[in-house]
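thread: overnight batch results

M.L. [08:02]
morning all. the overnight job finished for the chain we discussed friday. pasting input first so we're all looking at the same thing
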Amino acid sequence: MISNKLIAMPKPEMSELITGIFKMGDTFAEGNSDERPVHQVKVNAFFLSKYCVSFDDFDYYSSITGRSFADDANMGRGQMPVVNVNWYEMIEYCNWLSEQDGYQKVYSIDKVQGDINNHNESDTLKWTVEANWSANGYRLPTEAEWEFAARDCGGHIRFGNGSQIARPSGMNFDGMEPSNPIAEVGKKRPAPVQVNAFESNKYGLFNMSGNVWEMCWDWYDSDYYARSPMNNPKGPESGTLKVARGGSWVHNAFKCRTMSREHKAAQLIDVRIGFRLARNA
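M.L. [08:03]
and the structure it wrote out:
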């Protein structure tokens, strides 16, 4: 049930991540080839929202702007992470929220001129989206920022709650896989949990591993780490798919590691995909 009562939405709760240099990639030597080579990366200080954007957040935006409400697939609304929203809609939400909170919009969006850097032939939108990286508004995190935050500012951390072992009591993932050396065997939940479920990592970030995939700004390239710049990398100039991080409730612990990389089409809507917000510090 979607409520028609509008309550002013508070600003997102954000955690500040300090400037840092870290070794990005598979520091455990257990991941896939696209997680290598391990390479040194510097990220400037930034803010990251403590929680994924919730249905409450996105429903308020939808009510104000008159857009269609995202489908919760009967998994619940309220403080559940919003799903079934594509990358373009996430970008529009970031710009809208920046305006609401008095910040400068990060993204310029051209819905007419097709993006020459988008090589996905199945994408019927192909909006051209450019980022002003000096703006102070809301945006999607870069892949490097996301991993830096999930790993407690770049530590040797396997899961986004600060743990080296995935436990169903502290993460929403498929814990039914037997004999997994990086996970305890336990239950598999049938849906996401609320955005504030379980304990956060030491920087106050909730559900960085499991629950729902989190979309990033970057185009995905399996070989990008071999040529990634050190300072504030923002991904390749072009691509077919966008980077997603963190795994989801339907995936095993391996997919939910902080180093694990995934890729999704910008136009895709999916019950397993959500997002959280970043801002320049």
